[in-house]
Amino acid sequence: MMSRPVLPRSRPQWLSPRVLRTEVLGGLVVALALIPEAISFSIIAGVDPRVGLFASFTMAVTISLAGGRRAMISAATGAIALVVAPVVREHGVDYLIATVILGGAIQALLGLAGVARLMRFLPRSVMVGFVNALAILIFTAQLPYLTDVPWSVYALVAAGLAVMVGLPRLTTVIPAPLVAIVTLTAITVIAGITVPTVGDQGELPHTLPMPGIPDVAPTFETLRIIGPYAVAMALVGLMESLMTAKLVDDITDEHSNKTRESWGQGLANIVTGFFGGMGGCAMIGQTMINVKSSGARTRLSTFLAGVFLLILVVALGPVVALIPMAALVGVMIMVAVGTFDWHSIHPTTLRKMPKSETAVMLATVAVTVATHNLAIGVVVGVVLATVLFAQRVAHLVSVDSVLDPDGSTKIYRVTGQLFFASSNDLVFQFDYANDPANVVIDLSQAQVWDASTVAALDAVETKYHQRGINVSITGMNESSKQRHQALAGRLGAGH
């Protein structure tokens, strides 16, 4: 009996020395950038900085295993902090943790229900607006660190930007952001320069996070309190995460599993809640550092970002506290510049782009920046895009008529997509008073999409019948015919 040849197993991508170095260094840079962000978001939510830091650790580690988008970073975010802040303020931290767990469960259920498939309805103009708004928010978030500070802060930021712009032209072996952070930290410590540091942002934890159960009563009253916040958290987190995943897909030319990412975000929030974290979602800034600045492409970078974060704040807290905020501000400014879609505002693009597309992009940016809520901006952009699209398509419907030579029959030919926006005026396109005894409405070049169109056709038939004119509708394709047969005469048209 012949033995089968043993085929060599393919080595995981991240085990390649070059890839491994990229993933490790990328995870380290992200971990350093996560620390001040997590502390800031904790302050926004009204909780101890450790709550945000532990959330960033558990979110990153869990999503690295459960998520559907490799190399994307999930951690405590400002959007989630804004949503859950009222819970902390009015009911305390235990209710916050219960909200995070319930919000995660809702996200997991929505993921399993296939809500990620709705991403296909996201117009490109909304996506561009989302990206540009994110870039603006990332940049404006750095302004407080550049206000009322010593002049040396501006010099350090400029030096950091120079390193991050110039170093990649010489070598990409080590991520430029990491070199900038280490270099500026060394300069401030050796030269004794007094500038705001990470340690000034809040106390770093000294112990590991421990699992626990929130001290809330399992009653309907508790559900009534946390339910609305949990739903809002779930929707905002999913929207930001799925749109960030789509953005990373475009950058890496890879398709990700959005359904897995949805329930993975839910699982990450559930785990985060049981470890006392404030919850979170995908972070565009840190993801751009990982994917664009560092060149990471695997789950290892996301996993290590969480692990390094915990090591840095627990074991190396005194060292991390010395990092000047100017170094991290410089990194985030580079992220903002790299994230913004400059092509979208180029004069040539604006001249060639349909005005409706530009209007949707600008509306998404304006609302997002004004509210500091990406979810609201995206919803407004999608609604505006839908309205403008409906108006545009509605004008593409035409009705032409021809009279038979014997004068006994008039044929109306309807062309275009018939739905609520285009069919409302359909009833006024016919000459009821002067038409002959027989009228034919030819829909062979049209498509019936909804009940509004069927109701309009019913109204047309009723008006002709009231004048004793025989009317027949012909040429419908199979789907239009089925829709018409199911609803005709049942919608109250003309009565």
UniProtKB/TrEMBL annotation:
Keywords carried by this UniProt record: Membrane, Transmembrane, Transmembrane helix
Gene3D superfamilies: STAS domain
Residue ranges annotated for the STAS domain, each copy included: 411-495
Statement: the UniProt record of this protein carries the keyword Hydrolase: no
Chain ranges passing through the membrane: 50-66, 95-119, 126-145, 151-171, 178-199, 225-245, 266-285, 305-338, 359-389
Predominant location category: membrane
CDD domains for this protein: STAS_SulP_like_sulfate_transporter (cd07042)
N-terminal signal peptide: none
Membrane topology: Multi-pass membrane protein
Highest taxon in the source lineage: Bacteria
Subcellular localization(s) per the UniProt record: Membrane
Any Gene Ontology CC annotation: membrane
Pfam families from the UniProt entry: STAS, Sulfate_transp
Keyword Secreted: no
Protein name: Sulfate permease, SulP family
Origin species: Actinopolyspora saharensis
Native organism taxonomy: Bacteria, Bacillati, Actinomycetota, Actinomycetes, Actinopolysporales
